[in-house]
Amino acid sequence: AQSVAQPEDQVNVAEGNPLTVKCTYSVSGNPYLFWYVQYPNRGLQFLLKYITGDNLVKGSYGFEAEFNKSQTSFHLKKPSALVSDSALYFCAVREGGGSYIPTFGRGTSLIVHP
Amino acid sequence: SAVISQKPSRDICQRGTSLTIQCQVDSQVTMMFWYRQQPGQSLTLIATANQGSEATYESGFVIDKFPISRPNLTFSTLTVSNMSPEDSSIYLCSGGRLGLGNTEAFFGQGTRLTVV
Question: What pLDDT does B101 receive?
Answer without folding.
Answer: 67
